[in-house]
Amino acid sequence: KAGVTQTPRYLIKTRGQQVTLSCSPISGHRSVSWYQQTPGQGLQFLFEYFSETQRNKGNFPGRFSGRQFSNSRSEMNVSTLELGDSALYLCASSFRDYPYEQYFGPGTRLTVT
Amino acid sequence: KNEVEQSPQNLTAQEGEFITINCSYSVGISALHWLQQHPGGGIVSLFMLSSGKKKHGRLIATINIQEKHSSLHITASHPRDSAVYICAVAANNDMRFGAGTRLTVKP
Q1: Residues with Cβ < 8 Å from A18, sequence gap 6 or more?
Q2: Does pLDDT of B15 surpass 80?
């Protein structure tokens, strides 16, 4: 089976712009979770989608949003980018919803200048 | 105080040594995960535990729900085990992470 894929792998954006990141889960997996990793805050949970519904959400401002499509692919969007949004964004998929074993993608490294 | 505390933060070992990484948490959980992250960012899920003990190859993970504590053991450590090991707990419908333990195994 192909693993979790994320696109793009690297991205440079300017403050104030918006960005959309994509995650394709392992075939058959219906849950997708998103995480932000920064040197200062470590790994933090953003949100989790299961069968196109947002099931859980972390403590992030409304500028961070996401969605899941009927084929389980997921996107996350960050609007009005700030310098502090520079991070590695990871998605993970699992067959069932939280808190089952998760398979992580390689991440998208976002740099905001 | 963080809800998930890991110790030690950094660990250097010689090849072949037995290694223990500890994780303590302060919230009620439904499961605890041990993750491995190599340079470059890729994360691999090693274990998911809700009770007792699990073993996979040279890796053993234990959890004591009453004491809110988990340990990850690596037997016969090898330089390829060098990575950051992260403890994560599933609590209140989200995931909370420890700061990670950076392990370096020298040949």
Answers
A1: A77, A78, A79, A80, A81
A2: yes
Residue in B69, B55, B68, B56 with CA at minimum distance from that of residue B21: B69
> A75 vs chain B: nearest CA distance in angstroms?
19
Nearest Cα neighbor of A36 from A109, A113, A101 is A109
Using CA atoms, how far apart are residues B42 and B21, in angstroms rounded to an integer? 20
A102 to chain B, any CB pair closer than 8 A? The answer is yes
Asked whether the beta carbons of residue A35 and residue B95 sit closer than 8 angstroms, the reply is yes
pLDDT tens digits, A51-68: 999 988 999 999 999 999
Average pLDDT score over residue span B52-60 = 96
Instruction: Give the pair of three-digit tokens for residue A49.
Output: 């989608």
User: Which three-class secondary structure state does DSSP give residue B79?
Assistant: helix
Average pLDDT, chain A: 93
> Per-residue pLDDT averaged across A80-101, rounded?
89
A37·B45 Cβ contact <8 A: no
Q: Pick the residue from chain B with its C-alpha nearest to A105.
A: B42
Structure confidence at residue B31 (pLDDT): 92
pLDDT digits (tens, 9 = 90+) for B18-33: 999 999 999 999 899 9
Is A88 in CB contact (< 8 Å) with chain B? yes
Counted residue by residue, chain A has a size of 113
